[in-house]
Amino acid sequence: MDTIDIFMFLSYGLIIGGSVLAVVMPLIKSLGDPSSLVKTGLSVLALAVVFFIAYSISDSEVLPKYAAEPFNLTPGLSKFVGGSLLTTYALFIIAIVGIVVTELNKAIK
């Protein structure tokens, strides 16, 4: 086994460990303050609603070129990817509008 392989496996372990800790530690911290769990739950619910709306309006059309090998794209997967992209676009626009409104609010005050 090469040293590069060892470092690759070590980096995989660190990424997985960091991801798990990034999810678990805030949950442990918020157990002392249950109202923060309600805010988090409402945020997750809002994100789910945005995704559901985007998924509902996305198209499930698959071109024959992408339905064959090597892509094997199905209509369901196409609809999911379309919904994910529309959700990303919507959240990006919401973030930009939020930044602009915040800066205008600071400029007025």
TrEMBL record:
Keywords: Membrane, Transmembrane, Transmembrane helix. It comes from the Bacteria. The chain crosses the membrane at residues 6-28, 40-57, 77-101. This is NADH-quinone oxidoreductase subunit J. It comes from Fontibacter flavus.
